[in-house]
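User: Quick sanity check before I run a bigger batch. Here is a single chain. Can you write out its predicted 3D structure?
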Amino acid sequence: MSEIERVPTHKIKVTPEILARACEKNTRHCMIAEAVREQIPNATNISVDLMTVRFTDQETERRYTYPTPRSAQDGLIRFDKGMAIQPFGVHLKNGHAVSMQRRGRAMHNLGPRKVTTTKTASGGIESQTVGGHSPPKLKPKHPSHNSVRAFGLEGFTKEWEYKGAK
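Assistant: Done. Predicted structure follows.
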């Protein structure tokens, strides 16, 4: 696999400054989206929910989708419920890269979906996916609600109670 087809991993830090300017219940301006915007050069069209962290890299002309790590899921839920949280780190890995779209056309032909796996030093398995289509995303009922996140996930139930709440 060539270097351009590798899906990068990123270690993001959510700092006190980022927490202070983040917006609750907003997929494009939450604390993790702000950290990605600040710490990943060329990242645009950033969207974060409980399932995925997505952004486009203008330099590589790729759209990246990563599963939202557990630490980030917990932070999003607590933050969106108005609870105080401490700064934390997020490791974006096991990503999926697809070609960026311009005017309805793919910038590259990455071909069909290709998944590669590698064993980590700790005995775990990491994967990366290149090509095919991006994982599906829940569509809002109206375009004006495109960045609204209800308790960390579009469609998340209001009846759910955070077990760690005091």
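Residues 150-160 have pLDDT under 50 and may be disordered.

User: Great, the batch can go ahead then.
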